[in-house]
Design brief:
2 copies of one chain form a homodimer. Chain A has 328 residues and is of the alpha/beta class. The first copy, chain A, contains 13 helices and 12 strands. In chain A, α1 packs across α2, α1 packs across α3 and α8 runs parallel beside α9. The longest helix of chain A has 16 residues. The structure holds a DNA duplex (30 and 30 nucleotides).
Chain lengths: 328, 328
DNA sequence: TAGTAAAACACAAACGTTTGTGATGTTGAT
DNA sequence: ATCAACATCACAAACGTTTGTGTTTTACTA
């Protein structure tokens, strides 16, 4: 069986209490001499602390749980990088759990595993909980923060981009480039995120006195296939001269299908994507995109968690910008 | 403070022992009547089990840790999916930790966090430990398995594709298509994986009586940029008529740079990638690839962990196949 | 009805740490 | 030499479970 602080205590001829204090660096409780002795025998015996015991008595843990929906978009890496960086600076450990795709069962399981362990904080990226799971989370009394999603329940704290503005600015950008028949593709219109972007799109069209056409908006789930399907709906000789796809992958789907139809991008059709991950500069033509600050989302999310419970978690927007590449 | 089994015991008028046995479903230790009563009050009080306490006394945990190097290739999702599926069937929880890119510091931290918690098993995907960390892992007395990597130390159990064969078969495929001047790009030549693929490439060339040219092999780190750089080295009028890139992203780098040089793919240059992730069918032209069975890697890795300590972990190869698309 | 076996439950120790408090030893001033 | 003040350490309780074993209740047999 594993070596405990009692073993160290016995070997070093001190009490377990002293060993504990030395190992956790509580200064002013021991002499340098015993500290050295303790540390040496600890190393010699190959001591590994038992976190279960620690957490049992201290009732807190140094791990941050990130629950991500294994969405088919691919920005979560950046968010996690941000989380990791911020966590590293505070000596926190990050664990990541996949919660499937809109799978309440898996979401529940993920939530339970982290709540049982009473982690220090829970970050949920791009996951939308049903009310049962939402209760589970809220009642757990653990700081939490939603990331990269706009929630119906405005009382829940989330950090994301301003989806209305994304829709608005993307549309305006295309209008400024001379387009007036603009498609809106692949967003999940049942989600608040998708709905807000659509609102922004509508508003921008209206503000510029442009006609709307319901055939120009194609819902979906932000996936590659949704982009393909949208383009199929627009057809070989599309009425629209530009389309806004709600994710990079979806935009690629639009482009590929358009090219299969023999359309040239951006001359025959301009394509604009939302997200701005590395994919945009890897595909040809490179995708002009609404680029979100995912890394910062992660950082800010962590900061919110850390500052609790002093300050309550707040919702916030992270900035975004439009980066021109080749596709419009 | 949180509600414990003692609270439930008091409310239900039974002993904590009984509550424990009811809640963990140890049949034949209680009557149906009390079971019902206990479960009801547990739910009423909103009981959440304290995993720290459980693990402290049982000395085992139901979590599988997956340590992934946040490599810039992108196959780990598939591996994790496989792990998750297999874990789900055995009521195990999986947590994922990022260990940076060849960052011994982060690797150590990740290892320590999971060892301290004495997880049930450790899966390492695409991470290569230095000897210090290797010792840490081995001495922890926790089942472990390396995935998607070939190790120098053959005593460590790893599950991956046969890298020699990947190199050999990819080369042979191109030779069969009529190519005789073949580039080998973006593999990490300091890694066993890269070296084996290179050996396979050499062997296939030799077996077919073809000349080698050291200028045709360009090392790297499996990244997009390495593909770009390799192509830059081959130049505007490359001697090679085909190139094998050691990852999908690298292959895309090769293709993009080749196209920037005005080369047509596959007519002027054939490109073949290794991995076969979804990226292959998303880029244009679609990438012909050596497709690995990453999902199965995850599944098999989990199975190895689960079957321990009955059976010792063994190394094994997962199959791969060549999928023809458009790039050769 | 008495006796007994089985079923249902309770007691208490144990897991490995942290931490409040009390005990001992040391130092220096008077 | 005395004593306060402080530094150094040990004691022991507590965290919330699980589980081996002992105790009570129930049910059944004769």
């Amino acid at each position: 069986m594993a070596v405990t602080i009692k073993d160290i205590a016995k070997q070093a001829g001190v009490s377990p209490a002293t060993v504990s204090r030395v190992l956790s660096g509580q200064a002013a409780f021991y002499s340098e001499k015993t500290a050295k002795k303790v540390k040496k025998t600890a190393k010699k015996l190959g001591y590994q602390k038992n976190t279960a015991a620690v957490e049992l008595v201290t009732r807190r843990s140094k791990v941050i749980a990130v629950i991500v929906s294994s969405t088919k978009t691919n920005f979560s890496d950046q968010i996690i990088d941000g989380i990791q960086q911020e966590a590293g600076e505070h000596d926190l450990n990050v664990i990541i759990l996949y919660a499937g795709e809109k799978d309440p069962q898996m979401e529940r399981k993920a939530l339970e595993t982290v709540i049982e362990r009473s982690v220090m904080g829970i970050l949920l990226v791009a996951v939308n909980l049903n009310s049962v799971n939402e209760n589970l989370l809220v009642n757990a009394n653990i700081p939490y923060q939603f990331l990269s999603i706009t929630l119906k329940n405005r009382k829940l704290p989330f950090i994301t981009s301003d989806d209305f503005q994304i829709g608005y600015q993307a549309t305006k950008y295309l209008i400024d480039k001379g387009h007036s028949k603009i498609g809106f593709a692949a967003a999940d219109l049942d989600s608040v995120t998708g709905q807000l972007r659509l609102d922004g799109y509508h508003q921008a069209m209206a503000d510029n006195g442009l006609q709307l056409n319901s055939a120009w908006v194609c819902g979906g789930d932000f996936a590659y296939e949704d982009g393909v399907n949208a383009m199929k709906q627009y057809g070989r000789e599309p009425e629209v001269t530009a389309v806004i796809a709600s994710s990079d992958l979806a935009a690629i789907g639009v482009m590929n299908q358009a090219q299969d139809y023999g359309l040239k991008i951006p001359t025959d059709l301009a394509v604009m994507s939302v997200d701005g991950t590395k994919l945009c500069s890897i595909v040809r033509p490179q995708l002009t995109s609404v680029t979100q600050e995912f890394f910062e989302m992660g950082v800010r999310g962590m900061q919110q968690i850390i500052s609790q419970p002093t300050k309550a978690a707040k919702s916030a927007f992270t900035p975004f910008k439009i980066i021109a590449r080749q596709s419009v």
